[in-house]
Design brief:
The chain is mainly alpha-helical. It has a single domain, classed as Four Helix Bundle (Hemerythrin (Met), subunit A), CATH 1.20.120.1760. Helices cover 74% and strands 0% of the residues. The protein contains six helices and no strands. It is globular, with a radius of gyration of 20 Å. The relative contact order is 0.11.
């Protein structure tokens, strides 16, 4: 604190909490609503529908970036958003991976490995939430970016197999490595909490 700067006044009211009815949460709900539309378009035949499903997936992925930036910049972070945002992310990527595997375009073991990691980390966060929050790491953000690009390449029509395999392979490696990192962080957080109690 700068010398001479006024400190917090005793008895001063806390800053008002953000309303759950805000633009960031609305975008999260839009992303969830786009999931069935994306899956429906993906299963329809024709290049046009394939491009339409890609457009819906891209739009939904972009809202993830926008709603997070808005929530932080405008002080719109809410408990609802903290829960709904990761659910929306997992719903979108999970629906895409499962759909691609059902269509025979992506190996099931890749989908299972990624989904086990994603669901496992989400459960871990809830298990240790009383002891502290496991923040999103740079590796986690890289994982999300790689997954989005890899899925996007699989959705797009055309001879893109080498690009699909390379990006999905990178996404899988980063997904597993960051998953192990989250497990280590959760274990340390729980251990420190047990030591303090």
């Amino acid at each position: 604190m700068t010398a001479g700067a006024p400190g917090p006044v005793a008895g001063s009211p806390d800053p008002p909490r953000a309303s759950v009815y805000n633009i960031a949460n609305a975008l999260t709900l839009v992303r969830i609503a786009l999931v069935p539309l994306f899956v429906w378009a993906l299963f329809l035949d024709g290049t046009g529908w394939r491009l339409a499903s890609f457009a819906v997936f891209a739009a939904a992925s972009i809202t993830d970036k926008i709603d997070g930036d808005l929530a932080r910049a405008r002080g719109l972070v809410t408990d609802f958003g903290k829960i709904a945002d990761p659910i929306a992310d997992k719903a979108l990527t999970g629906a895409a991976l499962v759909s691609l595997s059902v269509m025979g375009e992506l190996w099931w073991w890749v989908t299972v490995a990624i989904m086990v990691r994603e669901i496992g980390v989400t459960v871990l966060r809830f298990v240790v939430i009383r002891r502290g929050v496991i923040p999103a790491s740079k590796g986690g953000k890289l994982k999300t970016t790689l997954q989005v690009f890899a899925i996007g390449f699989y959705i797009l029509p055309g001879p893109l197999d080498p690009l699909r395999w390379a990006t999905m392979g990178a996404a899988l490696v980063v997904t597993v490595v960051t998953g192990v990192d989250y497990v280590v962080q959760a274990w340390r957080l729980r251990r420190s909490g047990d030591a303090a109690s």
